[in-house]
Amino acid sequence: MHDRGPLSVGKAFSLLMREYEPLPYLGDLMFWWLLQRLIDAPQPLLIISDNLDEWPQRQLALTERGRDLLGRCNA
User: Fold this and answer.
1) Cα(10)–Cα(13) distance, integer angstroms
2) If both were cysteines, with which of 11, 35, 54, 63 could 7 make a disulfide (CB 3.0 to 4.6 Å apart)?
3) What torsion, rounded to 10 degrees, do the Cα atoms 69, 71, 73, 75 define?
4) Averaged pLDDT of the chain
5) What is the SS3 assignment for 42?
């Protein structure tokens, strides 16, 4: 999904489920819980917009560290 740029959390979940890896056991709340670990890490891989919208509407993007790690995984 890195090729799509910043996305809302809801859009990222929708793309994951429909196009990349349809995991029937992964619900939206579990997805949100998994994202929190990537956002709140000491060296975060994801950043999320800091607004008051419900979490599915907040914007999600890779950090510089996230892009670097993804580049190394794809090399």
Assistant:
1) 5
2) 11
3) -150
4) 84
5) coil
Structure-token pair, residue 1: 């999904």
Element (H, E) at 13: helix 9-15
| pLDDT tens track for 5-29 | 788 888 888 888 888 776 667 788 8
Query: Is the whole-model pTM more than 0.90?
Result: no
Give the CATH number, domain containing residue 50. Answer: 1.10.10
Domain span at 23 = 2-74
Burial zone of 39 (CB within 10 Å; 0-12 exposed, 13-18 middle, 19+ buried)? middle
